[in-house]
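Retro notes, item 3 of 5
We never archived the inputs for the thymidine-5'-diphosphate complex last cycle. Fixing that now. Sequence and ligand:
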Amino acid sequence: MTTAPLTGLFISFEGIDGAGKSTHIGALAAAFKAQGREVTLTREPGGTPLAETLRTLVLNDPMDPLTEALLMFAARRDHLNCVILPALARGEVVLCDRFTDATFAYQGGGRGFDEAVLTQLETMVQATVESNGTQLIQPKLTVWFDLAPEEAAKRLAGARVPDKFESQPLEFFRRVADGYARRLVGEPGRFARIDGGQTQQAVWQDVHAVFVAKGWLA
Ligand code: TYD
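Structure as it came back at the time:
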């Protein structure tokens, strides 16, 4: 992939199901808009017609771990090409509900799929040729809502009909959480870990403070 200079701001949001990302992503979008920034609010898997079709399949249909990982990355490729990179080139703030860390956490940690293969796929899908060489497109910041799997399960119980991932046992989510923790250790500078066990208001204060400290919000 060759791209125009990416002047925008790419931010992803991660956490196990039930960790409570959604409200805060919406509030951040409003805060950026209030400062006059254009915001693209999007999600993975999904964000384009093709990727949303793949989302429906991957969240509902049984399939082997390699197929699942390939579909996640196929959806991501389309999403990057059609939505994320164009928005960044226009200088927008891209707030993305999950990105590649979710594949390492869910398919890698949760499913136990080979992380070396995921790394190869990540390189294939996210490499861009820039003036200073080949770069891997990654969020500038990843906000990780870290919540104990037991607590997340309590919050999700009875909330809605669970999809293929949400209906996994507690042990699966322990492995997913460990997968996120490994990604943070691998790239600590990219992550902001938020204690998702606090009240919603306290979580928002922590999230907001991260963006203020970065100089992105007043
Ligand atoms: P989620 O983002 O939680 O959306 P909703 O708020 O509608 O439930 O759901 C997406 C699910 O897909 C979630 O269980 C995590 C899973 N997922 C993966 O397994 N791998 C991935 O690469 C991505 C992006 C998501």
